[in-house]
Amino acid sequence: MSIQLTPKETEYLAKLGKLLENTTNPSTFKSLGMRIEYWAKKTPTKIGLLFEDKSWTWKSINEETNKFANYFIRVGLKPSETVAVMMENSPKFLFVTGAISKIKAINSMINVNLRKQPLIHVMKIGKLKYIVVDKDCLPAIQGVYNDLKLKNNEIFVVNKNIKHDFIDLPNELNTISSDNPNTVVDFNVGDVCSYIFTSGTTGFPKAVMIKHTDIGNFYANGLHLKENDIVYNPLPLYHSHSNQTWRAVLCTGVTMALRKRFSVSEFWKDIKKFNANATVYIGELPRYLLNRPESEYIPGPLKKMFGLGLRKDIWEQFQSRFQIEHIWEIYGATDVGVPLFNIDEVPGMVGRNILPTVEIIKFDPDTGEFYKNKNGFYIKCKSGEIGMLITKILNYSEFTLYKNPEKTKLKVLRNVFEKDDAYLKSGDLLQLHEDHWVSFADRFGDTFRWKGENVSTLEVESILNNFPSIQMCNVYGVSIPNTDGKAGMAALKVDKELGFDYYQFSRFVVDNLPYYSIPIFLRIKNELEFTGTHKLRKVNLRKQGYNIEKFNEPVFYWDNSAKKYKGFDKIKYQNLLKNILKV
């Protein structure tokens, strides 16, 4: 069936076609470091970066980056070797990753919230040569140091006057040249620029290999960046969405205003301070901003936004109240790319399914099985139906995704519409509407999204099962009124002799889980249900949620201000529904 494209879609597809041509032509590949050098030469005095009360020209960005690059070369870092970068947002994050890129080594970007076993897991991916860490993340590294098998002189701390036993980078850089190093400029199609981690259905985070082919062109087009734009970026740089925003800046030579961490109270103040006319978002951020009282900094210069996860009701309220001219919504993920783009700005939609490589196929969320026709092939969804989005792999024999090839195989469907074809599973459920429009429906299975982060239920289960009195647990996501995403809930089978000390358990989750992975609700059960294939059954638990009017078992909820679990009763349940109780 032919699709009548809108003028904006026609223009977008023409640009996309050009970008796709470049992904197979190594002569077009540019590293982060090469782009920094380019702008330092072309527009040396233009401001490229704003942070707090400081600014950096492209010339100074390049010089700072060069110091790190020349130092790493001196200590022996070579192309294709891996450096873990565990840092909060800061200019030094950009200098360090740009420096590693100049050498054509690989940045392994570590989530700053990881602790203990999940942190050890990601650190051991890619045969680390070095670790670069800041003062905020140093305690986490110190806590797992004995498990990392690295020497003290292979861990670098980027801040001054911090007590530690590792290499003090600021002192080391005092005598290092700021001239351009012999930047590596030769590329092959499969060369890896960085690892960005995603929570998956098989447990601990998986390393997605980001190639040098993807240097921010799509995001630059998505934000419609112009020469004098200033892009405000409050999202964590170890995440794909934020990191691609920096790459878009490197692609176009505009200015990025960076914040260490997103702040609801400081957002509009920053927008005015930096005179930012563009920003990126994830779905939760606009809701947080809408819930704030009127601000003296509104109306401000912000005119365009680019992101994902924005619901229709929030979209319309936000755009009207804050006088935003353009909101461009996408559907995408680190390991799937961006197969849908709502370039015509229809609230509530993630785009139209206009690409021949993208399909939505029928799926049973209760069993986790795909529907097939009499010939054994998968069935495409019709308008009104919900299914899983998949994207075609055009050259499966050369396809790479995760650092672990076995993990990649689990993400792929074969023989979907014809013999030997291959498609990549998104793991997300989307709804197909009239005229090929698509909206996001839900995440499926063993992951859910909370506080802007993807949470792996298997990862959380593996950690909770280490608590002495828990014999077995089942973790799943539940919806909470007036919030986006799903909150974690854990059904626990407890050793009756040891009992359940919720105070000690509260300390345990704080010490071992990132804040966004801590289950908001606990349900104590005598037995857990299993499927016929001996997998933990989540369907009934999800349906019952935390509605204690449907069952007679102890439930606890997480009081974030007190950092401990408290009893959850019918009164608290009603208060939660009325938005009186906040979690």
Task: Considering the chains and any ligands shown, give keywords for the structure.
single chain, 583 residues, alpha/beta, Rossmann fold, Luciferase, domain 3, 4 domains, 8-stranded mixed sheet, 17 helices
The profile of the biggest β sheet is: 8 strands, mixed
Q: How helix-rich are the residues, as a percent range? A: 25-40%
Coarse shape: globular
| Uncertain stretches of 5 or more adjacent residues | none
Enumerate the strands of the largest sheet in spatial order, edge to edge or round the barrel: 2-1-11-10-12-13-14-15
Radius of gyration: 24 Å
CATH class designation of the largest domain: Alpha Beta
The protein's oligomeric status is single chain
- Which class best fits the helix and strand makeup? alpha/beta
Describe this structure in words.
The protein has 583 residues and is of the alpha/beta class. The chain has four domains: 1-30 and 214-351, Rossmann fold; 57-213, Rossmann fold (3-Layer(aba) Sandwich); 353-443, Luciferase, Domain 3 (Luciferase, domain 3), CATH 2.30.38; 447-577, GMP Synthetase, Chain A, domain 3. Helices cover 28% and strands 27% of the residues. The protein has an eight-stranded mixed sheet, with helices on both faces. Strands 7-6-5-3-4-8-9 form a seven-stranded mixed sheet, with helices on both faces. Strands 16, 17, 18, 19, 20, 21 and 22 form a seven-stranded antiparallel sheet that branches. The longest helix has 17 residues, at 58-74. The mean pLDDT is 90.
